[in-house]
Amino acid sequence: MRKKIVAGNWKMHKNAEQTEDLLNELIAKIPTDTDTNVIVAPTFVNLASAVDHLEFTNIKVAAQNVHQAEGGAFTGEISADMLKSVGVDIVILGHSERRAIFHETDALIANKVNTALEHDMTVIFCFGEELKDRQSANHFNVVENQLKDGLFQIEAKDWEQVVLAYEPVWAIGTGETASPEQAQEMHEFIRETVRKTYGNEVADTVSILYGGSVKPENAKEIFSKPDVDGGLIGGAALKADDFVAIVTAI
Ligand code: PEP
């Protein structure tokens, strides 16, 4: 059985008070008996308080990034050990905004993945093609290369700590969603790509999330596809009612 997961990436939104308000709403509204793994990723400065706030709930906390080094002269950066020390053991890596705006390469992301796994963190590994790749029918190649170059250095045993998040860049924050059929086609391709290198057990147990303008209106249909195990949610994760509707759409 694969884990069902809905994760909210809050990006650079919500100050301390707003974080607490949104968490309170989520605590009140997310069913306590859900078998969906619910994760929220507030900004770094609000992680420690979010962990405290959510201590007796079924909502987990993720970081939006981590540095690849153990520590040192890296002004402005945060290490895996620091995250773990405040109770955060999940990290989102490879997000398209990190790749595009902060120039993170597959090689750098691979380093970050290795560091996070060495610290026994769970990695939500994001990847996905740009519009030009899909228009030139190169999207399967791009996705395969991102997986191979950013993730396939890990050992089979490490896959227990990995969640995949397919996020076509053209659908992130644009209101443009991949159709449920496009999502399924790519998720199936991803699972088969994992199978070729790591075998059936890994391929059949890894959760593959879809991300890109998921909303309450389209979540159910996307999540109904056999290889879609949940979602990574951006904009709609910032409103409690929308996020809860998505969580309960699986
Ligand atoms: C994201 O940034 O991971 C994302 C999926 O954003 P949105 O849901 O806003 O498209």
From TrEMBL:
The keyword Cell inner membrane does not apply. Keywords: Cytoplasm, Gluconeogenesis, Glycolysis, Isomerase. PROSITE patterns: TIM_1, TIM_2. Its EC number is 5.3.1.1. It is found in: Cytoplasm. Substrate binds at N9, W10, K11, G173, S213, G234, G235. The active site is at H95 (electrophile), E167 (proton acceptor). Pathway: Carbohydrate biosynthesis; gluconeogenesis; Carbohydrate degradation; glycolysis; D-glyceraldehyde 3-phosphate from glycerone phosphate: step 1/1. Gene3D superfamilies: Aldolase class I. It comes from the Bacteria. Homodimer. Belongs to the triosephosphate isomerase family. PANTHER family: TRIOSEPHOSPHATE ISOMERASE. Involved in the gluconeogenesis. Catalyzes stereospecifically the conversion of dihydroxyacetone phosphate (DHAP) to D-glyceraldehyde-3-phosphate (G3P). This is Triosephosphate isomerase. The lineage of its organism: Bacteria, Pseudomonadati, Bacteroidota, Flavobacteriia, Flavobacteriales.
